[in-house]
Design goal:
mainly beta
Length: 112
């Protein structure tokens, strides 16, 4: 195929909100991990396997409980995309990419 000149990543990625604000996303999550930082590069673009270092906050009862760091989150991109439950109204634009917070139903979380 002829090059489109867009090598090196995704472009013009805009995810529409499902109409819930950040507080409602936390309540919907109930218990889980709010990821605020990702570390390293661990995406296999052939298989879709995804594994990255992460930091953030543990959430219980829809409320932030405590900070967590030096953990790993893992999953498969196809499964992750299928398990998007909600996208928040807290849209952040970074160049041609725009999305709110994304709530994913299930991922593997490892660490102490």
């Amino acid at each position: 195929m002829q090059s489109t000149g867009n090598a090196g990543g995704n472009h013009n990625l805009i995810l529409s909100s499902t109409g819930v604000d950040f507080a409602a996303l936390l309540k919907k999550m109930d218990t889980g991990l709010l990821v605020t930082e990702l570390l390293g590069h661990g995406i296999n673009t052939v298989t879709g396997d995804y594994s990255r270092g992460a930091a953030g906050f543990w959430v219980a009862g829809g409320v932030l409980q405590y900070a967590v760091e030096e953990i790993t989150i893992a999953g498969n991109l196809l499964d992750m995309f299928k398990q998007i439950i909600a996208i928040g109204t807290d849209v952040e634009a970074r160049g041609s990419k725009q999305t709110g917070s994304i709530l994913i139903e299930r991922m593997t979380v490892a660490g102490d």
